[in-house]
Write a structure and sequence with these properties.
heterodimer, A: alpha/beta, Rossmann fold, 24% strand, globular, B: mainly alpha, 2 strands, 1% strand
Chain lengths: 254, 288
């Protein structure tokens, strides 16, 4: 097997129980570099729990998760993130009392300077390269004119764009996006977010997203995974999945 | 005149103390009620180093800073994993423990008898015993500490602290070692508090555990809250205001017996009014 075809992320037989109920039930899939994969399914299907397992916030009861060829069992969240895994949270999680600029700058810092001595030893100066990066990220988000505003002063949609701008500055090469289109105007989804994801994937970034806006999911995903009650019930390309009867069962009830 | 110099010296002693507490409470969002413990530890280390080991003053000051910092980092490690109110309770616990150790470890600290006769600092061969000279020295140290604190908060490390304050989960997901950051900032803040303790011990020449009680820890928290959280000038303003209040009472000719109680009442009322009408303090950025 050549190196190029080695998966970026491999989830093998992963299970997680809460109070006896299996929230994630023997889930297995793998993602190869530069692809966009959508994880769809009704609320409570276990999608966000799966993200938390991959992210390191929770540990699987059974199974293994391999990121960049390394088993992440017991690895702290910050180390998994530092090795190139970025996450967009469903509830966005910007830094509310910090300026838009600082929010993105903290993402920028994270990329190169997360070791404690380096963080402490670097001066106050923001490098020209960082400034340039932040400027283009804010331009993409349409927030250039608000760079001094506090994050909490933005609308929910703008905060989501800010969180994505912050994420884009970390140089993560695997992005877990929890509902990137929810609460954002259709036009913003089509003109800003979709092109960003397509460009990222072209340059080798791998994207795994949870999303309910199926029309866009069909358009951008190379691969689709349908989850229901903790299990993967179907996988395939958009064309394959749309035809399968499972889709209707999962979303419209039996 | 001497009275005025005394007030200025006390302000200089308190600037690193309140400034470093603000690193924890204002910048990192850690409501720590054990800063008087590190203040006391610094005073004792510095006094004992100079008296028992015969080290020169600046080395004693340095030992206090390093010792206070290490102890702070060590005792913070178990506390830091506690969330919210439990963290506050944990720090109160440490404050009480340190006070009890200072009080009961008689062989080293002389317990309730305190340590009298702490020598005045000797700097470049000159004994700093006059008030103007002590003011000059403590102001130099205080300004040095405030500059260091400024450098810390404006570095990427300082931004990372604010990220922890705003959303620790998000900071971790960006790759920040938030536990490590908190332990490190606790150690740094403890070190600055210990510097203040050293300045205090060699100024008053007598220390005993009653200067480093939980009341003092709460007084320090009040300074930081009144002045304003998460800015550099906040704790400086807070220190000046909290020291100015009792001094103004002196001019109102309130009898001594009443003055102490009146002061406590005024502090309490001030805190309540601020929290109600200006929760970010006089010059603050973050709220509690």
């Amino acid at each position: 097997m050549s190196v190029a075809s080695a998966p970026i992320l491999e989830v093998r037989n992963v299970s997680k129980r809460f109070n006896g109920a299996k929230t994630v039930d023997e889930v297995s899939f793998s993602l190869s570099g530069g692809t966009i994969t959508a994880l769809i399914g009704p609320n409570g299907a276990g999608k966000t729990t799966l993200f938390n397992l991959i992210n390191g916030y929770m540990h699987p009861d059974f199974g293994r998760i391999v990121f960049n060829g390394k088993d992440i069992a017991g690895v702290p969240v910050y180390k998994i993130a530092g090795s190139g895994l970025g996450r967009l949270f469903q509830d966005v999680r910007t830094f509310p009392k910090l300026s838009v600029f600082e929010n993105v700058l903290i993402g920028c810092d994270a990329q190169t300077r997360t070791s404690l001595p380096v963080l402490l030893g670097s001066g106050a100066r923001v490098s020209a390269a960082q400034k340039h990066k932040i400027k283009s990220a804010l331009e993409w988000a349409g927030l250039s004119h608000k760079s001094e505003a506090l994050a909490e002063e933005l609308s929910f949609g703008q905060q989501k764009l800010l969180a994505m701008a912050r994420l884009s500055c970390t140089d993560a090469h695997l992005l877990l996006l929890d509902e990137p289109f929810a609460g954002v105007a259709d036009e913003v989804v089509r003109k800003q977010i979709v092109p960003l994801l397509k460009t990222a994937a072209k340059s080798g970034t791998t994207v795994l997203l949870i999303e309910h806006l199926l029309s866009v999911v069909w358009e951008i995903s190379d691969h689709i995974i349908i989850m229901d009650e903790g299990k993967i019930v179907n996988t395939g390309t958009a064309e394959q999945v749309i035809k399968s009867p499972v889709l209707g069962e999962v979303f419209l009830g039996n | 005149m001497n009275y005025f110099l005394h007030i200025l010296i006390m302000l200089c002693i308190y600037f690193p103390l309140s400034g470093s507490l603000n690193l924890l409470v204002g910048f990192t969002g850690m409501m720590s009620i054990c800063h008087a413990a590190f203040y006391g530890i610094g005073g004792y280390i510095s006094a004992l180093a100079m008296m028992q080991l015969g080290v020169p003053f600046f080395l004693a000051l340095l030992l206090a800073a390093v010792g206070g910092g290490l102890i702070a980092a060590l005792i913070s490690a178990p506390c830091i994993r506690l969330k919210g109110d439990y963290f506050i309770l944990g720090t109160i616990g440490f404050q009480v423990i340190v006070y009890r150790i200072l009080y009961n470890w008689v062989a080293v600290t002389r317990g309730p008898f305190g340590i009298p006769g702490i020598p005045a600092p000797v700097v470049f061969g000159r004994e700093i015993s006059s008030l103007p000279m002590y003011l000059l020295m403590s102001a130099t140290v205080a300004v040095g500490c405030l500059i260091l604190i400024y450098l810390i908060v404006s570095s990427p490390f300082g931004r990372a602290l604010k990220a922890v304050r705003e959303d620790e989960t998000a900071a971790q997901a960006l790759g920040y070692n938030t536990i490590g950051l908190k332990i490190l900032v606790f150690g740094i803040a403890g070190g600055f508090a210990a510097v203040s303790g050293s300045l205090y011990a060699h100024y008053v020449t007598f220390i005993d555990p009653t200067s480093f009680t939980i009341d003092e820890a709460i007084f320090l928290i009040s300074i930081v809250i009144v002045g304003g959280l998460g800015t550099l000038k906040g704790p400086v303003i807070g220190t000046v205001v909290m020291f100015a209040i009792p001094e103004m009472l002196r001019f109102l000719k309130i009898p001594d017996a009443m003055a102490a109680n009146t002061r406590q009442i005024i502090y309490g009322v001030l805190l309540i009014l601020l929290i109600r009408f200006r929760p970010q303090g006089i010059a603050g950025e973050a709220k509690l």
